[in-house]
Every structure is written in C-alpha cells, then in structure tokens.
Amino acid sequence: MKSILIKDTTKEEREEIIRASLDCGGGCENCSSCWLGGGSPWDIYQDYIDGRREIADINADYMSTYRQDRQIK
After folding, report:
1. Half-sphere CA count of 49, side-chain side, radius 13 A
2. Is the separation of the CB atoms in 73 and 43 below 8 Å?
3. What was the pLDDT predicted at 24?
C-alpha cells in the first residue's frame, strides 16, 4: 500500500484517499454520523486534504473529543 502521508501525496491524491475511505456503500443520506455530533467528514479532513495535518492527528483529536474516555472498541 502506498503511503498516505502528506509528504508522499498530492492534494488530488489526498482528496481521493478521503473519498475512498468514506465510501461505506450506504451513501450519506443513510448515515447518522454527521447529525450525531461528528460533523461533516469533508470538514473534518479538510486540513489533511490541504496538507496541514496528517490523518492520524485528525483522528486522534476527533476520538479524544467525541469518545470522551468511554471504552468504545
């Protein structure tokens, strides 16, 4: 698998990485993630697409904010 780090990707590749990772097959209209407080995935990952923050850092911040120390597996 190719690296997904910002230094190894173009903006277009990062957009495709996010698009592919968000494609659960159900379509956004059947998803409840956004209205449960998570927000738009495109907004969440915009810093990655723009080359400002790595996915791992965004995910860690998201989990610390929305998981709130609950033991979610």
Report:
1. 13
2. no
3. 62
- The whole-angstrom separation of Cα 24 and Cα 19 is 10
Report residue 52 as tokens. 């400002």
Rounded to whole angstroms, what are the CA distances from 25 to 1, 11, 30, 56, 57? 22, 24, 10, 23, 26
| Tokens encoding 36 | 């449960």
The answer to whether residues 8 and 2 touch, using CB atoms and an 8 Å cutoff, is yes
Read off the pLDDT of residues 34-72 as tens digits, 9 standing for 90 and up.
555 566 778 889 999 999 999 999 988 888 876 666 665
* pTM exceeds 0.85: no
